[in-house]
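Re-running MBOAT family O-acyltransferase to confirm reproducibility after the cluster update. Everything else is unchanged from the original entry.
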Amino acid sequence: MVFSSLIFLFVFLTANLIAYFAVSPEKRNKVLLIFSLVFYAWGGPRYLLLLAGETLVSWLFAIRIDEARAGYTKRSEKFYLVCDLVIMLGCLAIFKYLGFFLGNIKAVFGVPKTVPGIALPIGISFYTFQLISYVVDVYRNEVRPQREYWKLLLYSSLFHQCIAGPIVRYETVADQIDNREITANDIYMGLRRFSVGLAKKAILANSCASIADTLLPAGVASLKAQTTLGMWIGMIAYMLQIYLDFSAYSDMAIGMGRMVGFHYDENFNYPYMATSVNNFWRRWHISLSSFFRDYVYIPLGGNRCSTAKYIRNMAIVWFLTGMWHGASWNYIFWGVYYLGFLLLEKFYLGGRLGPVASRIYTLLVILFGWTIFRFESLRELGTVLAGMFGIGTSGFANMALGTIFVKNIFFLIFACIACTDLGKRLRKWAIEVGKVNPLVFNVFNVTEMITPVLMLVISVLALVGASYNPFLYFQF
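Result of re-run:
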């Protein structure tokens, strides 16, 4: 079940909100837990045991760490922390990476004869990292251990964010689990944020995906039949898709959390407006970047060390960042690719590029980075990278590409605008001007009231029929 499905919108989420507000406040956490477990089990009931088991392990070791600190056990806090990390990372390695490593060993040495096909449990990367951050924070004495198992299970399984993030720190919601108040403004802002995220996914991201898949079909032969300009437009569409898709899920998660009193941190800050690769990674998937910073980079020494150790620390972080995204060589190359540019900016580029040149440079780096990210087949990746420079394609452009481009040009422009903060700045301007201008004030209020409804209606229409295109009237 995904957030952008009709069954989620009209059955699951609706039932969840009705049940949540129908019961007394002291029972609402249990309602959330039940719905979260049902949501997770929907994608594979057997893996619900893995989620519950990992949560149990972290719950027990966090309590042991606290007891060791108080002198109630003979073991040290570090012993229990290491045990938890071994189990948690071991489970992640088995389910996510065992097949990848065995496949590469077989390719080199011919053994084992068969590589086991292990299905990847939904959301395992997200809830594993959340539970690790919880236990480490208990070890650091930054949060108190949760004494009630079911409440920690609620934290790890909360359906708002356990599938696609953001990675929510326990300290962010620790107090909200037991003490949270919900105002009418919370419900409205949550609904507004969710509806905008849904529209971003159902209309913009899905349409960008359709353009990218059309221009960048699977298979080396099909890619070679594409034109150079077609590859560029296809990759630009994919670049828009991956941001709009991923940020849409974060928007919906933040919105759903807000509706029931949870305030999750922002996960994206208009990353395509970045002025450097470093700045891009301060804006993109903020919860993941901060996790690696706080739990890997800084413990290794950060940048307060020799140049050699700094490069080592960065290499470890970016190797892990690549691996976290998937068990395939292209993700490792993607991490190394960004490592190279971050080191280049650190030791050479610095602020040498002007404001315009720096933005162009950053967008090009991001575009080629997403090219590496998209193609798990190294042959397909090589074909596209060569094709973007005019090597091995069917020419620069053709009539078919022209038809696709003209048909979608206004949509692509709108998608580009949606990746900027223009809407946010216009809303802020309307609020300020509305304080002194009654007309602007009234128009703004009407717009605010109809925005969630309008976004939901358009999104549902887009989801009901794949052929429906809300931008039809803006096309030639």
